[in-house]
């Protein structure tokens, strides 16, 4: 009889498999005390209201107080967030996060005068302030802030917006609670036994060798989303409306312009990405033709695009073995980088395995205090999970170096840069695995993995980016989001990107209503630009020497001290033009050709 695989309760997870949050707070009681202290300190801020124009020292005193409180606020929030992700259905975790959100909302409301008041200081006076050494720690932050002057509102208006902080998160919070906790997906029978179908196991089931397992998992998964289609469409519509409202009240020409402004990324970067990918869709369609033939199918289905083409290849790495593999693969980055990361992965940075109610997927959460923590749902038989661990390790090392080399005001790098540091590590891991492959089968397997990653990270994320832009543009033109309109828009893009080889199901376009990143709009395009930059930088480091290694590490150390386009230029990549994306497409073409040749040799 087949055994049923069960998912552990959080209380049954070994302490050695959990992250160690003592770097944030030793005990929950310490967190409670710190929250009380922060709330009591908030009224101090108003003592500076109306005084910032008096002198540079007065401005510094205010910023010193605010910075101290922001560090504590970040620390409190990071702890509450991480504890909540351990089991998003746990009422204690929900209560802790809600209480933090109430206090941080009060903090933001009390702080709402700060930016408008700094903006209102006479330009000659503030320029003089910036020349004084006393404001040295804040020069970069203030210079960036002044750039926002046309979009900062009056103190009263900013206060009203700050009071909406918690309510603006409602669509995303409800989406998470619905899809990660309330929705029940049942189980799927496999050769390994009955596997609970969840957000986390869905990806694993889609690479199962048995096509009937993949089909059943796919249909059963999306059938559950279809049952909630009206709720999901309403939640996404609410999120889009919030985005548009924020852009309008701050006088941006569009939501996209609003979202790209903080990183100083030209909208042409977004447009160039979509344009280059559209030009290379015939390559993607060529790959799907190749995949269909190798799988021996008359028609390709959506559940056929993730399973490895070489069914004879299987992998099994314990978590500790995965860390050893990553350590060896990252040798081009030097001993210091490797030793810090290896110790972190084995000693408290990572919450390793899935448990009941745990947030799906993976992430790195680095802050100025504590360690750069990593949440995983690691599975020993899924090679992609080793790449995910390397990916999140890249984020965490970026955070580690940023904190060590910058003050609080300048440590927090942008997501645009973050996606370079993470996918860079994946490139080194793929290179190591390929060079150490002991057969053509394994080489082809690794090449297939790289091809799949480029599809997932560049082609697919560009499709997602195009979808969310069109969804926002649709509402900006006065066309409401409904279940039918949003599904129609998503299906059109699926047909464009997957091409003539793909036969879509009726429920396939429900995918557009299950992507969590859509609740952080204009974010997903950074995956595509990030991998494009990472491919270029990894080539430099692998083919170069100490100088290239130093340039890359200096990029990590720069934190948020520069705008992302500028920091990447220092590392050797110019993302303001389409060339890196075009180069990534050339790599994709070369990989596809090599895969074709290898598969022919193996036949």
Task: Lay out the secondary structure.
Elements: H1 28-41, H2 56-86, H3 91-111, H4 114-120, H5 123-130, H6 139-147, H7 155-162, H8 165-168, H9 170-182, E1 187-190, E2 193-196, H10 199-205, H11 211-227, H12 229-249, H13 255-260, H14 267-279, H15 281-295, H16 319-329, H17 335-346, E3 350-351, E4 363-365, E5 373-375, H18 383-405, H19 408-411, H20 415-435, H21 440-476, H22 483-498, H23 525-543, H24 546-557, H25 564-571, H26 579-602
Parallel strand pairs: 3-5
Antiparallel strand pairs: 1-2, 4-5
Give descriptors for this structure.
603 residues; mainly alpha; Butyryl-CoA Dehydrogenase, subunit A, domain 3; three-stranded mixed sheet; two-stranded antiparallel sheet; 63% helix
Q: What would you say this structure looks like, in words?
A:
This protein is mainly α and 603 residues long. Helix content is 63%, strand content 3%. Among the domains are: 159 residues, Butyryl-CoA Dehydrogenase, subunit A, domain 3, CATH 1.20.140; 204 residues, Oligoendopeptidase f, C-terminal domain (Neurolysin, domain 3, Orthogonal Bundle), CATH 1.10.1370. A three-stranded mixed beta sheet has the order 3-5-4, with helices on both faces. A two-stranded antiparallel ribbon has the order 1-2.
